[in-house]
Design brief:
mainly alpha; 4-stranded mixed beta sheet; about 70% helix; elongated
């Protein structure tokens, strides 16, 4: 475009990867939402008061403590960075926009005075400054990837695996009815699925995050005759329009109660341990999905940086080489490309803005049977940030 070595225009470099960034951002939003609900779930769970303490109780207590400790560590490192990294990425927008705007203004001057070496040099500097900001975006995202690899790729999943192993060795098949326990777990999953369906029907989840709204994650305990909290699932901000007195959810809860009544004490204990480990296993899987999502975002932005570097270097080479010959760069074409790049960047910036994590949690209590109005009031009052909520929940 600018001379015979031209490879890719600046606007094309941004447009080429906009779809990949958009797709990665959407997956990331859902992954953050899922992890937030999962972390709130395990933070409100507890090692149950069993009817029959197993022989490996001490090992079980240790494994549970280790899993909880690693979950807190994940929250205080990875989740904290999840909230700060997108803010840093968005902060580069004002600089990238300003440098590209400045480059466009200089092109306008050079269209009138194409042999002005001072303005030509200033144009090169503006484009290099913009490139430096693009590079900072990838540095921030690379830091997030590194943090997740340290705390999320192995530490938490390993602790969760150990908890599941120890819990699985607590009772023998002779002591509990495996089918009854399996039926109970299936009903727990039904309850979670029904809540998720209700959330989807009212456009919860990624929409709340993408729109920059504050989501309120509420721990919803399912109480039963054997005491304690057997299952904890989470509902989100849109609980304001989700009446958890829904007949569907009440039916799920009643079915759980009936299943508990049919169990012997060992089956009840096994059911509680399986529910506890299932919640941790789900969280572990969710953090793995999130790690993959962040990898995809980082890869997409690195691809942007690579092509933007080629395009800017190409423009700069055309300007620099022209200064040593009688040839002149086509500043009309360069300006048009920069202006198109500004428009493409604004679209890309909107995708990066959607990475912002802006969720909170309500410390109020909820239960099945509350009306929609009661849930709405609960979801929007006494809210704290997720990190504070998780730390406080684990400490109780």
């Amino acid at each position: 475009m600018y001379h015979e070595k031209s490879i890719l225009s600046l606007s094309a470099a941004l447009k080429k990867h906009s779809r990949a960034i958009g797709d990665a951002s959407s997956s990331y939003q859902q992954a953050v939402y899922d992890v937030t609900n999962g972390m709130c779930t395990v933070s409100k769970s507890a090692l149950p008061n069993l009817n029959n303490k197993p022989a490996n109780w001490d090992d079980l207590t240790k494994a549970y403590t280790n899993a909880g400790t690693d979950a807190i560590a994940w929250t205080n490192t990875v989740y904290v960075q999840l909230t700060s990294a997108p803010t840093s990425v968005m902060s580069f927008n004002v600089f990238i926009d300003a440098y590209l705007q400045g480059a466009s203004v200089l092109c306008a001057k050079l269209i009138k005075h194409p042999r002005d070496k001072a303005d030509a040099g200033a144009l090169v500097n503006e484009l290099n400054n913009a490139l430096a900001q693009f590079n900072l975006v990838t540095i921030v995202l690379s830091g997030l990837v590194a943090t997740i690899k340290v705390y999320g790729a192995s530490t938490l999943p390993d602790a969760v695996t150990q908890l599941a192993t120890v819990a699985g060795d607590s009772y023998t098949d002779v002591q509990f009815d495996a089918q009854q326990v399996a039926d109970f777990q299936s009903q727990i999953n039904n309850l979670k699925s029904d809540i998720a369906t209700l959330q989807t029907e009212i456009a919860l989840g990624t929409v709340a995050i993408a729109a920059g709204l504050v989501g309120a994650a509420i721990a919803l305990p399912t109480l039963n005759p054997i005491g304690g909290v057997l299952a904890v699932v989470s509902i989100a901000a849109g609980a304001a329009v989700l009446g958890i007195d829904s007949e569907l959810l009440v039916k799920d809860q009643n079915e759980l109660n009936n299943l508990c009544d049919e169990m012997n004490s060992y089956s009840q204990d096994e059911a509680q341990l399986q529910t506890l480990t299932a919640n941790y296993n789900q969280l572990s899987a969710q953090t793995t999905v999130l790690a993959t999502s962040v990898d995809s975002i980082s890869a997409a932005w690195n691809a942007v940086l690579s092509d933007v570097t080629l395009a800017i270097n190409d423009i700069n080479a055309a300007i620099t080489e022209a200064s040593n010959t009688d040839a002149l760069p086509d500043y009309v074409v360069i300006q048009a490309d920069i202006n198109d790049a500004l428009a493409e960047w604004n679209l890309t910036y909107n995708d990066s803005a959607a990475l912002a994590v802006n969720m909170s949690a309500s410390t109020n209590s909820v239960s099945i049977g509350m009306s929609s109005a009661q849930v709405a009031a609960t979801a929007t009052t006494n809210t704290v940030d997720i990190v504070t909520y998780v730390n406080n929940s684990f400490s109780h």
